[in-house]
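To the wet lab folks,

You asked to see what we're planning to order before we commit. Fair enough. Below is the target structure as tokens, and below that is the sequence we designed to fit it. If anything looks off to you, flag it before the synthesis order goes out.
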């Protein structure tokens, strides 16, 4: 099966997704197209990196993942195709694959310079997803090897993403790096960095580490490890972003002290 997934910030209100799919199916009519998401916040490269890293590991080996979150479209930024042990990725060279590559490092990366594999006709300066990256993804699904697409590169853009920091007093400081559609605040603190028991502090509130949402009453805050393996802070059946009035970049402190207070 030729599987091509699509992840973009296009949304569903316009015809952009349909245009990319039309290009893909014109060149690879027997491909199976699967929408990973089209709801990435506009131009949110780091948010897209997080979503990708927590979705693509569950796809079968051999998939082609097309990512078009591209605030630099039309500029001199490169576009690339990258092969890992499990999949092939087509994306702008803006760091969107940073977190994917931490788990599944690239074996080969090329710059998409061979116009033979672009869309026939005029190339738009504002829609490389349709005219360049989409056609390339289709050709890869059809069996074209990466070395035909352009020269090998060894210096892809890597995002400088925040890492948790051990404080002098022994506490671990991280921050909110993503907020999902439920308003859950997801941190950059992985489960294996959490002490047991642990107290989580955010915006002058202290929360014990819980196992699941049902450990607190409806409308109350809860800190737990999410399905992605990172510490997150939620409101049961509510939005932590709205209730706590915090967003990405907000600091989160973890200490090896049990505290039963929940604000």
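Sequence we intend to order:
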């Amino acid at each position: 099966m030729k599987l091509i997934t699509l992840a973009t910030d296009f949304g569903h209100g316009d015809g952009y997704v349909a245009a990319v799919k039309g290009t893909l199916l014109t060149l690879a009519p027997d491909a199976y197209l699967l929408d990973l998401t089209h709801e990435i916040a506009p131009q949110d490269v780091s948010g897209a990196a997080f979503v990708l890293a927590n979705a693509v590991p569950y796809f079968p080996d051999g998939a082609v993942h097309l990512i078009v979150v591209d605030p630099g479209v039309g500029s001199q930024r490169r576009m690339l195709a990258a092969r890992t042990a499990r999949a092939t990725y087509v994306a702008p060279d803006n760091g969107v694959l940073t977190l994917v590559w931490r788990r599944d490092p690239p074996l080969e990366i090329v710059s998409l310079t061979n116009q033979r594999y672009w869309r026939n006709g005029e190339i738009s300066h504002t829609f490389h997803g349709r005219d360049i990256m989409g056609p390339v993804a289709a050709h890869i699904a059809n069996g074209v090897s990466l070395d035909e697409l352009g020269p090998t590169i060894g210096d892809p853009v890597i995002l400088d993403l925040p890492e948790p920091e051990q404080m002098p007093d022994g506490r671990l400081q991280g921050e909110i790096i993503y907020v999902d559609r439920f308003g859950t605040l997801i941190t950059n603190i992985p489960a294996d960095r959490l002490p047991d028991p642990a107290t989580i502090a955010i915006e002058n509130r202290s929360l014990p580490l819980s196992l699941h949402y049902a450990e607190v009453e409806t409308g109350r805050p809860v800190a737990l490890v999410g399905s992605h393996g990172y510490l997150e802070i939620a409101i049961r059946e509510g939005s932590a972003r709205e209730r706590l009035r915090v967003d990405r970049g907000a600091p989160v402190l973890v200490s090896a002290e049990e505290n039963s207070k929940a604000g």
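Structural context that might help your review: The two ends are 50 Å apart (CA to CA). The chain has a mean pLDDT of 95.

Thanks,
Computational group
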